[in-house]
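ENTRY TYPE: paired fold submission
RECORD: A
CONTENT: sequence, then structure tokens
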Amino acid sequence: MLATVQHAAEPGTLARVALSSSAPAPEGVSDPGGMDGWEGEGGALARDHGGELPPPATRDEVSARAADVVSDPSGAEVWEAEGGTVPGVDSPAPVAAAVAVLPIDWAKPAGRGDCAAANTCGGFGVLLWDLPGCAPRCAECAARVMGHSPAALRALTLPGDVVEAEEGAEAADIVIRHTHEDGTTVEGSAKGDGVWEALRPLGWTYRRNPGIFIRGSRYKDADRWKINRAADAVRALGLSCAVVIEEGMSFAEREAARVDAAEQRADRFTDRAGRAAASSQSARDASDRIGERFWMGQPILVGHHSEGRARRDQERMHNAMRKSIAEGERAGYWASRAAAADAYERYRKNPGRTLRRIEKLEAERRGVLRERDGVDDKGRPADVWRRKPSEERYQELTRRLAEYDEELTYWAETIKEAERRGFKVWGKPDFVRGDFARWRGSWYEVTRVSAKTVTVPHIHAAFDGGTVGAVGGCRVVTRAATAETRHKGSTYTLPYNEVSGRMSAEQMRAALAGEAIPADPRDITPEPAPTPGSLPPSPPA
């Protein structure tokens, strides 16, 4: 951005002052290198002591003086090449030396957003840098303040792959960009260029804001397969396409961002539900006020002078009631959405659901490991048709393994936190044949114990006469009772991550008989043995 100010000290004199990061501001401007200060002070020089500006030169005088010395009066490149001055033209005051160049390591990347001077430089949704004493700025504005070029700022503060991607994005017609904050979006597309028509069959979505994007891609890793298909479709239109993937958030940070977004959705949906409920009640009141005219079943008098008004009132009353019903349904819809958003974190971190998620992630990780190395984490070989991956595919599989490890570590910590709050993670060592396992409000006798599941009588037997009683409101299903039903010994397997309780056979017999339930030795934690040399516990008083 080149900002210039023109004035004349006397008729026929041209003075041009260039404001940039390499030259100090004219007298009266408080921020020599800041664009914001220059704009905040009106973009004009300070007035003289009398409060008046010198009279401006006429158009003819300016043209006559500048035509011979400036080859391209509107070109910033010529202006900078000539040192910020016009040869042969007197200036009212000599231009001081350039400001000192700030160390480039003072600039720290601050993610993507809007530049502090975006209204002037157009830096909306770009990479930003934090500068000492300044708001985050884009590469061009930050480089101007520090006295460096934008290319040098990017090269010395960003990773090499990010610099290469940004340079490719600047030269491309269409940019497919993925960030954890904004998801996967398309930049540079305009109506009629055919990009939306090409990407719509590939599963992309369009909204006025942010434009063309992948639904549900925020706070997730990039779907590279879908992005590469979209890039090929754009190139088939004859347009150049660049793919920029910036994944700077850890999995824990993304989970926290999801929770914050859910809280914001809950507030927004609650507000919508309240407005819809108020509109429904208002329409109902209006319908009731109109209906007072027909109190006690006053009929419409056909042929009477009041017939027209009565029919119009009747139609208005019906319309108001229809609106009341529709708004009431909207209020219920948004209220349910608000309740779902409010329960997001509890749903997401439910221990049983988290255990099932971990099991699924571990299976997917073993598949990736087999494809990359030929064996899984337990040393089991891959299928005989496996081919050694290419170097590019190997790097992609390594990246995916790192993502799985990060996510599994996070969910493992979630389970540990649930255990500290009293949640029990069941497994094969916790059950023997004859125990009872609780599943969704019923107790089932365990007939077999496996590595990942327990075998119980068929769950439908709880509703077909296979119960022998109830304990705490939960039906008790035994193998012997199931044999008398239509299932006749059919079984069902329960995964450990869905089991919510255990009782031994002795405890179940006592519970069914209404007796005191004895303690299970497996639930008693033995006291730690005293270390040699320690004092024995003192006897009770």
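RECORD: B
CONTENT: sequence, then structure tokens
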Amino acid sequence: MIQDRYQLAHRLYPYARSADQDAPAPVRHPVVVIGGGPIGVATALDLGLQGLPVVLIDDHEGVGQGSRAICFSKRTLEIADRYGLGETALAKGVVWNLGKVFHEDRKVFEFNLLPEEGHKFPAFINLQQPYFEKFLVERVREANAAGARIDLRGRNRLEGITPQGRHVTLDIATPEGPYQIEADYVIACDGAGSPTRKLMGLDFEGRVFQDSFLIADITMSAPFPTERWFSFEPAHGAGASTLLHKQPDGEWRVDFQIGWDVDRKEELKEENVRRRLDAMLGPEVEYKIVWTSIYTFQCRRMKAFRHGRVLFAGDSAHQVSPFGARGANSGMQDVDNLGWKLGMVLRGEAPDALLDSYCSERRHGADENILNSTRSTDFITPKSPVSHMFRNAVLDLAEHHPFARPLVNSGRLSLPCVYDDGPLNGADALPGGPERSRPGAPCPDAPLGDGYLLELLASGGFTLLCINCEGPELPEDLPAAIAVQAVTAQIGPLAERYLGDASQAIYLIRPDQHVAARWHTANADEIRAALHHALAME
């Protein structure tokens, strides 16, 4: 029988009766998060670290089964670092930058996802999702011990949701009976099957692709390198394509493309899973099966991520195919975008309209992910003899000609979204400034002193980064606090990534480390105008 070690772990927030269940009337909370996966807990942690009280309800008591998301990107690690767990995840994860593409067991080419130096975190780590969830919950406990008010409620299942204009009423079921609470804002992070979305009569728009993929997590001691191996039409015939990733604890993820017209129950039988694994790994490799599942590519999203005082994030808002590692990574970018905005709205530092920018910016991010994921899917699963012939011709050319390699799409890997034309972007008045640090872009990391630039930009508020200059004196009546940081950069990664051809620069950087505006020189009025714009105050 296939063993599942995740069934025994981890009751991270077991059911406990809350005072709300004994209250004579529904208790009002500023924020209720629905869903205790990585996106939900990260959302609660983000808000809790800002000093806001948060209630999180989940119908389980801890992490789910199976490794599920395993590829956590550099940007996700940078976000996690602001929450205090980036280095913890890095220490446990398997670091990789190199990927290889094969066709019929011939290596077509390889690629390095982070060819430059000067970043705190690698391009990717592989880490089973239960570990990432566990680290988040442990960080919540640490934050609570230091004074945060983050209430994780296990076995609290959402049964009803009723928007009431200025608040939302939630009906919750528990082992000891139902109760009600109210929330100024609700954030739904309850996954692809989102009960919140269904209770509100909302749905996805998009495509479901007609193909199936079998996942097998196995433990083995075979000497495969720490690289991403993707094979098109492998000679062993175990699948139309296969993917191999190394995980911590001697565990490996194997994906098999098995076709659309399959009997899922039959395919998941241990003897049939082993048949594919034996064909791929060879008879001499010993392994133990830890977890298996079958999934279908889906590229879909909600029409809007905000519905009044209910906001959707992660898989509850959008779905993409697993190839490209865009699921959990895009969800963490949702949290990164929403957390500071909701915090400022709840503290009265920004208008409610700021939350509309969450919908527009992250819908842009979802569309970008869906576009890339759809292209990956079309390349991996050609739908006609002609498209199959074209795909293989590209692979043959790529083996010998570099110009063809960008056309190979074995799951174009996740990159952080740039909010080009975003509603909060301000001036771009830095002639010769690098494209990679334009308004809307996430700040690229760079070495700074004994540490890294992004560590300097992790205060949780706005930052005025002055490079090779001091910047203007700021008035006290700005709508939000700004930390002013002056640094020197003549040559090296910081100058290359932020100055380009300019001799100096001033950057206004948002709390989520995205560039709001940049100038060669700027006065207080220009900075005030950019800050008003970044807070949707005009």
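NOTES ON RECORD B: The first strand starts at residue 27 and ends at 34. DSSP finds 13 helices and 26 strands in the chain.
STATUS: closed
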